[in-house]
Amino acid sequence: MTTAKSSLISFWQDGKMLSCRRWFISVLAYWINLNIILICLLSAGFFNGSTNIASDKAIAMEAAAKISPEIILENEIINWMQAKNAKYSRFKVVFPEDGMVHAKGLIPLGNKSVRVNILEINTKINSNLEIKPQTASDTRLNSRVKIQSIATKNSSIAAINGGYFKPQTGVPLGLLVIDNEVITGPIYKRAAISINNDGTYSTGKSDIKFYLKNRKTSLEIDNINQPRMLSTYSVIYTEKWGNTAPKPPKYGANAIVLNGKITGIYADPVKIPKNGFVLSAPMKAIEKIKQQKNLKLETKYPEYFAKSRHIISGGPFLIQNGTIFIDAKEEKLTTITGRNPRTLIGYTKDNELILATVDGRENQSVGMSLYEAAKFMQKLGCINAINLDGGSSSVMYLKGRITNNPPMTGGIPLSGILSVSLNSPIVTSENEISKM
Hints:
By secondary structure, the chain is an alpha+beta fold. The protein has helices spanning 3-6, 20-43, 53-65, 69-87, 147-153, 283-289, 370-379, 430-435, and strands spanning 12-13, 16-17, 92-97, 100-109, 112-121, 129-135, 156-161, 176-178, 181-184, 191-196, 201-205, 209-213, 218-221, 223-224, 235-237, 244-245, 252-258, 261-266, 270-271, 277-282, 296-300, 308-313, 317-320, 323-324, 342-348, 353-358, 382-387, 396-398, 401-402, 416-422. The longest helix is centred in the first third of the chain and has 24 residues, at 20-43.
């Protein structure tokens, strides 16, 4: 089938025909293209024998420039939709927004089956799509609510559950960065994925370093807004943690840092100051910077996260550079290697993000092992992919409803999500143009 003919196919999604507007624009685009071909033939002397090549080229370029960018984009969208219909031909497919496709269905797994939900996102086709982590609460990390509440609050089109969290409190267990602000630090340097400033994605270990320093001294910080793992650790608690920093370690203290200097040292839980933070650390560490001024918290990212805007961690790795790579032992996640409900994230060589949930622990859908999950994401075209939180946490939200089948109706309360929202395009007024 030719490209021209294939672009005129009527798509049927949930019993609804592809919009007449797209169909009309597709026809119009090919009509314009046909006219350009005729212009080029005429200008090339195909009919009158002209040999003025420079003039011919100028005429052809002028004609091509008259094609509306909107028509070109619409054709890209239609072609993309055709490709996704072909890719997910065995699934029920819908296109909730330009640049987004949702596919749902059962796939065989040995002599069993598994239900999957896949969301593929192309921000090149729709630059108004924003992918960003969101927390259950803006004021405290020890909070959990259902995905629908977080998604509604943030006007999300779609969402999946995020990384691991402490069930008792909801505090994220692992690296979480939102708008270049470290919300929580890493645990065991587990696998993470970043949404970069230039619209690309990166994966790597959450191996970032923190320092409290000035020109004279530097104190390495072991973590930010995480439960203490060792009494020797120096941990910083910011306003994102909540109102009060936890009890300091034995032989340690809570030091309030405000305006670049320590303003008080306490042996008990202490209120976190606005526009400041609390250093909870052994006294030896506090003494090192006790008299210092102009202290600043510095974050050092590994090279693969140098362009990041948002980072969300999970673990373990599933695919690295096109090859299956599962490091569950190194990330201390050996207890989750068997078949379970899963939430997966990865991206393709064409920079398309793929989010997927896998239902499990039921007769019709048995879940996936980490290896099966890696093979699944590889088959979808991912060159890099990681595992996010799974089990009872696995849930996908799309336009007001839950698309998978979590054990609890609506999914369990979560500490955070990865959200897909639609930003309004920036419209420049004529007055603003005249000022440029």
